[in-house]
Amino acid sequence: MPDRRVFFTGGGGFIAAHTIPLLTERGYSVRIFDNMTRGDRDRVGEFVATGKVELVEADVRYGGAVREAIRGCTHVIHFATVSINKSIADPHESIDINMTGNHNVFAAAAAEGVQRLVFASSASVYGEPRKLPMHEDDPLNPLTPYCISKRAGEDLLGFYQRRSGLSWIALRFFNVYGPGQRIEAYYTSVINHFIQRLRAGRPPLIDGKGEQSMDFVHVTDLAKAVVRALESERDCVPINIGTGIDTSIATLAKLLIDAVGVDVEPEFNPRDVLVSRRAADITRAREILGWEPEIPVEQGMRALVESYG
Ligand SMILES: NC(=O)c1ccc[n+]([C@@H]2O[C@H](COP(=O)([O-])OP(=O)(O)OC[C@H]3O[C@@H](n4cnc5c(N)ncnc54)[C@H](O)[C@@H]3O)[C@@H](O)[C@H]2O)c1
């Protein structure tokens, strides 16, 4: 197989930790580009020890560093980002990392002539959906600097496609969950909060009426979609990556009560929520990537609870 090397920004993070083993199994070598503000050093150390992965510890805000490190790479996965909650608290930092960072990576990828760039976009580009399931051609209404940068990132990819023939796919991830996720992850933090409380014998505390829903997609399934996007024949489109199933928070609470095995009822706490319902239309993921989620939410949540030991 010809030398295939992935330049992987944010490669020290949660989703990357599940994606990198799939890449090395398929014969890619991986150059992680991560400033390690949220990276998992132990996990990255294990990857580097295989001899197939290297770490460049640097910041996507520095275009020169990106341009230098991307040299010799045939593929790009761009994940480096600051999270949605940090983007609300500090829009300046968010715009800097997410907008300038996106541009540095896309411009460098175009200049290097890489074969494919996969960008981690987000379901949050839709804002409050008008209908379910959410389709890629639905109107976009990003509400925070993080979401705005994801949408702008998709637009910028279009620019480098037109100007330099850059081949890209933007994956609009829905609510990713699974082992190794940080406790404070914005949407999915609810899973960890519920599990922590249940393990202490306390009831889950539900924001609002528990009617708000999410489309929980397991990180193992999602990582497969990332690799498919790197290799698909069709390109230059956004693609939803979810399951198509909206799970209400009240349902999630019940699932986790069963998974942990405690005899409690959820408690309710009135509060406004940013996006109330989510479910992905995944027709395009099926057609273009030949991808199908395989882990039902009940099974994924049970496995997550078991991974806590
Ligand atoms: N987890 C989800 O539910 C979800 C949903 C939608 C989209 N996404 C997107 O998927 C991607 C990966 O998410 P994740 O959950 O693995 O996130 P994560 O926070 O675990 O990983 C992000 C990585 O980026 C690195 N990073 C941050 N700022 C950087 C900078 N300035 N320069 C270089 N590296 C920097 C961090 O150190 C970290 O290792 C992100 O782009 C995220 O926006 C995630």
Notes on the protein architecture:
By secondary structure, the protein is α/β, with parallel strands linked by helices. It folds into two domains: about 5-175 and about 215-240, 3-Layer(aba) Sandwich (Rossmann fold), CATH 3.40.50.720; about 175-215 and about 245-280 and about 295-305, UDP-galactose 4-epimerase, domain 1, CATH 3.90.25.10. Helices cover about 40% and strands about 15% of the residues. The strands form four sheets. A seven-stranded parallel beta sheet has the order 3-2-1-4-5-6-11, sandwiched between helices. The protein has a two-stranded parallel ribbon with strand order 7-10. A two-stranded parallel sheet has the order 8-13. Helix 7 packs parallel to helix 9 (about 250-260). The protein is globular and about 55 Å long. The protein binds nicotinamide-adenine-dinucleotide. The site of nicotinamide-adenine-dinucleotide has 29 residues, from helix 1, helix 5, strand 5 and strand 7.
